[in-house]
Amino acid sequence: MRALKRCCLVTLAVCLFACAGVDAASPASVFPGTTWEVMTPAEASLDEKALEQLAAHVGGRGCVVRHGRMVYTWGDEQRSSDVASAFKPLLSTLLFFAIQDGYIADADDPVANHEPRLRDLDPDKDGHITWAHLGAQTSGYGLAEAPGEAYSYNDYALALYYDTLMDKVFEADADEVLKRYLGQPLGFEDAYTFEAFGPADRPGRLAVSVRDFARFGQFILHGGRWKDAQLLAGDHVETMVSAVVPPHTPVASGAEAPMIADQRTVGGGKTITPVGPGFYSFNWWLNGRDRHGNQLYPDGPDDLILAAGHGGKRTLWIFPSLDMVVSWNDSHISDHDDSPHNPDTLSNQAVRLMMRAVAASCRADNNGPERRTTLHIDGDHWHINGAITCPGTPAEGLLMNVRMVNATFEDRNRDDFDPDANTDAFLAALPDYVAHGIRAFTFCLQGGYPGYEGALNSAFNPDGSLREDYMARVARVLDGCDAHGAAAILGLFYQRQDSVLEDADALRRGVRNVMAWLRQKEYRHVLVEIANEYGHAGFDHELLQTPEGQVELIELARAEAPDIYVATSGGGNGTLHDKVAEASDFMLIHFNHTATEDIPDRINRLRHLGRPIVCNEDNKIGEEGAQAARITVQHGASWGLMALDVNQKHPFVFKGAQDDPAVYAEIKQLTQ
Q: What are the residue boundaries of the structural domains of the chain, listed by start?
């Protein structure tokens, strides 16, 4: 096992798969040349210890690629051998090259146009098998069910797929086809062949090294682009990874039907596994849900894509929202099919280790990581990394957000809560929130109401100085946002907790200390919220109860760090006092107690100031929350979800879009 030293220093922002719709701006993407460029795990924002644990857990040989560079390898990464069923998505990729080059009209063309024996077999059944049916494992070939009627993981149908595509469509040697479209353009370094066991033993079985398979993963992650060339049209790649077999598709009965004479298999039978509906798309596995609501890999991001062979023994993992590819072979793992129903499978454990490598890397060191994300205001629009947010969408220029104030929670009055594990859980889910259109996360140095009274949760000492262990967790979440191209709204004071500070001068010192800390850390993606709902009866200090006190603290913060935007939030009725609105760099409002039909009026009352309007707290959920988000965006303001009973009340849950599927689906539609 070994980490690799990188060849050169290049600053990257997160590079995301085009189909994911995430607009984190970055310099030109990095692709391997004759050999891979390398970087250390720390430079790739990955935790080396977690990668070592992953390698020991998986076994065999493998590699981890992030931001286009090789980060970690174990075993012999250049050894070429069979990848079993993990070859199938590569076969579908070659299908789309055939469509692009005009050999086939589209994926819905009958395969019988090239293999007429299918019509001879049964014109009303097999004659209607399409390429899409073969890619979805719903062809019914050799089974009683008609094409599209049932799912069956069928290696006889895959042999038909491979043989017809190579012999009847391309009419060329399969290895030459592989070389023409993938091996040569992507610069495979090692031996590769579709005859892993020789020409007479199951042709179509791909032998490739883990590092070359990772090149293929990079190609898919970048939507069919390689360096400066769009080799395969992006819409073809999007089709491949979005045409999932509907979760309620029945599984084939197993009753057999005739096949073409001498039909062979690429390895297995006709009904190898019932797992697939809800997950399977042109031979790729997606992190979807089955008819029972079980997610394939619940600890992985929703945009996870993988090619799996021998139950996970040979696997290519693609994490678009993490800009990461992992490839392994000859592992100890063979329980991929059990993973939707059993969180303790070796496959699920491997996913958790990969996610831990990302989350644990966000722990701040003394110097902090290299900054990647910048945020600025242009008129009443938000820009991240110099580009307007969500361009060409209903939410263009807006900062869709979610309240995560207890992502750094602690309670010094109880010893049964692990603050670092809680922060780890949020960081593991962060990429999924971003993938669904979230552009900012609200945190708070005194958290939020955890669902019970008496908690002691504050980053401040009584004299206004900052507590080092608490600020370490804050740095982790801010670094996580920075790494994923998202902004952070950092609240300072919360009701029930401000009494920790001994007097008004300690409160002022606290403001200055926070702003100095942010400046020292060189954060360029952080907004400051002085108080959550100033004037709330739960505040003890007068400075947090009056508009005049808020104006004073806003100006104090701005004097300490002029480059950081500062505001404070009003109550849940969607209003701000005129003095506070005028003093703020942007206007923070809450819609908790605002009916959806009143939202336009609340926004219009503030529009005359010509600054961004951001709702960063609305406790409406489900369809009502989705409607509130839509109305807010239609009237030119940013909207933020507060999933009170999920993210804020103990026990805290951070599951990405599954926190509220209706709301996150709406945000994704508004932003992508």
A: 80-360, 375-671
Burial 305-341 (b: 16+ CB within 10 A, else e): bbbbbbbbbbbbbbbbbbbbbbbbbbbebbbbbbbbe
Q: How far is 301 from 428, CA to CA, in rounded Å?
A: 8
Core vs surface per residue 582-595: b (16+ CB within 10 A) or e: ebbebbbbbbbebe
Give yes or no for residue 364 having a pLDDT over 70: no
The rounded distance, in Å, linking the Cα atoms of 559 and 74 is 51
Could you write out the DSSP letters of every residue in 283-299?
TEEES-B-TTS-BSSTT
* Residues 503, 501: Cα–Cα separation, whole Å: 6
For residue 672, how many C-alpha atoms fall within 13 Å in the half-sphere facing its CB? Answer: 20
Number of helices (H), then strands (E), in the chain: 18, 23
Span 55-89, pLDDT tens digits: 999 999 999 999 999 999 999 999 999 999 999 99
**Could you tell me which of 647, 152, 72 has the C-alpha nearest to residue 404?**
647
pLDDT by residue (tens digit) across 559-601? Answer: 899 889 999 999 999 999 999 999 999 999 999 999 999 999 9
The C-alpha atoms of residue 597 and residue 640 are separated, in whole angstroms, by 17
Distance from C-alpha of 485 to C-alpha of 440, rounded to nearest angstrom: 9
Q: Chain-centre distance of CA 388, in angstroms?
A: 21
User: CA angle, corner 237, sides to 235 and 241, nearest 5?
Assistant: 115
DSSP 8-state symbol, 143: B
Q: Is 239 helix (H, G, I), strand (E, B) or coil?
A: helix
Q: Can you tell me the distance from the alpha carbon of 151 to that of 140, in angstroms, rounded to the nearest whole number?
A: 8
Strand segments, DSSP code E, in 507-583 are 526-531, 566-567
The H or E element containing residue 205 is: none
CA distance 311 to 333: 7
Residues comprising the chain, all counted: 672
HEC states along 329-345? Answer: ECCCCCCHHHCCCCCCC
Angle at 45 between CA 41 and CA 46, to 5 degrees: 50
Please report the pLDDT score of residue 363 as a whole number. Answer: 44
Integer Cα distance of 536 and 557 in angstroms: 21
Contact 59, 330 (CB under 8 A): yes
Tokens 């799996």 correspond to what residue?
308
β-strand pairing of 314-319 with 324-329: antiparallel
CATH 3.90.550.10 applies to domain 375-671: no
Whose CA is closest to 430, among 303, 590, 618, 296?
Answer: 303
Which residues are registered as beta bridge partners of 489? 442, 527
284 token code pair = 């790729």
Residue 302 CA to residue 287 CA, distance in Å, equals 5
Distances (CA, A) of 595 to 400, 575, 599, 601: 19, 13, 7, 11
Architecture of the domain delimited by 80-360: 3-Layer(aba) Sandwich (3.40)
Nearest to 539 by CA among 476, 582, 497: 497
